[in-house]
Design goal:
Strand 10 and strand 11 form a beta hairpin. The strands form five sheets. Strands 8, 9, 10 and 11 form a four-stranded antiparallel sheet that branches. The protein has a four-stranded mixed sheet with strand order 13-12-14-15, sandwiched between helices. A three-stranded antiparallel sheet has the order 3-4-7. With about 475 residues, the chain is of the alpha+beta class. Helix 11 packs antiparallel against helix 12. The chain is globular and about 65 Å long. It is built from 17 helices and 15 strands. Helix content is about 50%, strand content about 10%. The chain has three domains: about 210 residues, no CATH class; about 180 residues, Glycosyltransferase (Alpha/alpha barrel), CATH 1.50.10; about 80 residues, no CATH class. The two termini are about 20 Å apart.
Length: about 475
């Protein structure tokens, strides 16, 4: 899998292959986990500099029409931006790059400002067109920019974003693309704010206001992950609002409904809806543990097993048993624009098994991996999500439980969030936390805080030494 990604990597411009270039966050997550960090960091750097990124309002467009990430198809999709937000947070942990931090902050801001409904769910997408012209909302005339800014601001913006060059959009307009390295320049920030305010007065692109469980789950997971890493309580609150919306409006009679709009939820949910939502709840519980989230994750996982699993051959069908009869029930294993439902199901069920000690989940995950392993070996392209799940099946992830006095427990949680530990589940649980399964219900020990670290069935003695615990989390077995 990694050999295939290395062979197709554009080391100069980032991404894979030539134009058009699409985001592949699951591929880049695998590369980051497995030590191929340049593939991920170079690509994200080029995307954050490029026109696929909205330098005024935050968020990424659907894909780049060219190899340079300069001119996008201007549609903005929720399913891209949620995973990219989480990946930017991890890339910042690994690199310390202020570019990744800024893009994460601006993307999270865009999601909350423009994509979250008053009811709490996230909308699906923004159109590419406004006034029947693609990109009209986003591109600029040079004289318009000059009139909006002071001479000093214009000079700074022109050199940074290419306004002093030939037009790059249809030979007559400018789309912002970073040419000069990013620097902390208040004058550029002031100029960007003025252009953003002027752009807000334009006719806006249309917005698809459907709330889809699967796309929301991707956004919830990315928002909660980034919130934990950057310590942003408002991002976590946004993810929590979207989660509560789904449970309130789209969880009926212990089954999910796939889509919601104008006060009505309908259509039986699909594999992706359940698998992605379990993964999102696992992330939420690490940011802010709730016994109710764990209970719901188990209920969702039980539906996965009852409605979607092929218990004979392994893997999960895209449609459930209660769905209308189809000529063919596919079992998607390869990542497309979104990660494969079977891959996310295998990964999330594997992790859920370590928390709950329920062998049904780990057995279903193993059956899924066995089903897709021959295809992964024969045709590795598109199996990054499955490779991540397989890696955690071969090398069981850490389970770290931090217990003690609330203030100290949360201090340790926040410090651990500043470490890149992709193979560790961290649950911060004050002594008063109730409703815990046995794997998490560690006893008080009379000290302010203690950490219990396990990998598979092997557990270290509990420790109150944070430095020792952090080092143990980073050890490879």
């Amino acid at each position: 899998m990694l050999e295939n990604l290395r062979a197709n990597f554009d080391a100069h411009l980032g991404g894979f292959g030539t134009a058009p270039k699409f985001p592949h966050p699951t591929d880049w997550e695998l590369c980051l986990r497995e030590g191929e960090r340049d593939i991920t960091l170079v690509t994200l750097e080029r995307m954050c500099e490029g026109g696929i990124y909205d330098h005024l309002g935050g968020g990424f467009c659907r894909y780049s029409t060219d190899a340079q990430w300069m001119i996008p198809h201007f549609e903005k999709m929720l399913y891209d931006n949620g995973p990219l937000l989480g990946l930017l947070a991890d890339a910042w942990l690994v690199s310390g790059s202020e570019t990744f931090k800024r893009c994460a902050e601006e993307t999270a801001g865009w999601l909350m400002r423009e994509m979250q409904s008053p009811e709490g769910g996230y909308y699906s997408s923004l159109d590419a067109d406004s006034e029947h012209e693609e990109g009209k909302f986003y591109v600029w005339d040079r004289d318009e920019v000059r009139a909006l800014l002071s001479p000093e601001e214009y000079a700074a913006m022109a050199s940074r974003f290419g306004l002093d060059r030939e037009p790059n959009f249809e030979r007559k307009h400018w789309h912002l693309h970073a040419y000069a390295p990013a620097e902390k320049a208040p004058i550029v920030d002031a100029a960007r704010a003025k252009l953003f305010a002027a752009r807000e007065r334009r006719v806006r692109p249309g917005r698809d206001e459907k709330v889809l469980v699967s796309w929301n789950a991707l956004a919830i997971r990315g928002m909660a992950h980034a919130a934990r890493i950057f310590g942003r309580s408002e991002w976590l609150a946004s993810a929590r609002r979207a989660t509560e919306f789904i449970r309130r409006e789209m969880w009926r009679d212990r089954r999910l409904l796939a889509t919601y709009k104008d006060g009505r939820a309908h259509l039986n949910a699909y594999l992706d809806d359940y698998a992605y939502l379990v993964a999102a709840l696992l992330e939420l519980m690490q940011a802010d543990f709730s016994a109710g989230d764990l209970e719901w994750a188990r209920a969702l996982a039980d539906v996965l097993l009852a409605e979607f699993e092929d218990r004979g051959a392994g893997g999960f069908f895209f449609t459930g048993e209660s769905h209308e009869r189809l000529f063919h029930r596919p079992k998607p294993g390869q990542d497309q624009a979104m990660p494969a439902g079977n891959a996310v199901a295998a990964w999330s069920l594997g992790r859920l098994a370590y928390i709950t000690e329920d062998p049904r989940y780990s057995q279903a995950a193993e059956r899924t991996l066995r089903l897709f392993y021959p295809a992964m070996r024969e045709y590795p392209a598109g199996y990054a999500g499955m490779a991540i799940a397989l890696g955690e099946h071969i090398r069981p992830p850490n389970l770290l439980v931090v217990r003690g006095q609330a203030a100290e427990v949360f201090r340790w949680r926040d410090q651990l969030a500043r470490e890149y530990l992709p193979d560790t589940q961290i649950f911060a649980l004050p002594d008063e936390a109730a409703g815990l399964p046995a794997a998490l219900a560690k006893p008080p020990r009379g000290e302010p805080v203690n950490g219990w670290l396990c990998r598979g069935v092997i557990c270290l003695p509990p420790t109150g030494d944070f430095v020792q615990l952090k080092a143990a989390c980073k050890e490879k077995t």
